[in-house]
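In the current project phase, the collection of sequences with tokenised folds has grown. A representative record is quoted in full directly below:
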Amino acid sequence: MSKECSKSLARRLSNPNFMRLYFKGNGIDIGGKSDPLSLYIELFPLVKSIRTWDIEDGDAQFMSSVESETYDFVHSSHCLEHLNDPLEGIQNWLRILKPGGYLIITVPDEDLYEQGKFPSTFNKDHKWTFTVYKYSSWSTKSINIIDMLKDLDDNTCIEKIELLNSMHRILPRYDQTLTPVAECGIEVIIRKRTYEEISNKGKLPKNILLNKEVRVYLNQYRDDQNTLIQYNKITKPFNNESNI
């Protein structure tokens, strides 16, 4: 697979959540040595630091030398499929993540990447194939993302699951990740719930005092809605056929 983290940048920069929520504070990029997220740190202004973690640092499945709740975000591009136990890997990646932080994972989709053959002929170190969800798969080592995420603890909130197929073309069997544009993967984003959120059984709004300008506009929106409701009581809506 070729420069999958780099390929994701244009797509991610078009989504404001990557800049304002997902990539913020101090992060770790697991398995990122060949194409590290840290190369592009200036594109995400709320990021303070990114540690690149790879095989010489330890087994990514366990992250044994990293204390719990260390990082504000954990990123991993195409590493999970190399682990002996992907679920245990995700559990430990969540362990080292601070409450309120985000885990951003990309894995290859089995139909877009492996394309019907496993063990992989494109990457012999792949131990698993992944699909968002199937009732059955041609792969004997297939993992349904949705089923795997159901096995996580109640401290997780699934924010996003996306099949990355926008640049995938109709070709004979070929590793399309060799091209400069095709991702051929699945992106999963998980938020680690705060202790307060777990206790409340939901992310509930907080009672905070907004500044005057914000209060004026929000109250005006509500007043406008009330005005419309009152007017519709007098004049039946969608009944005006006069010329424009």
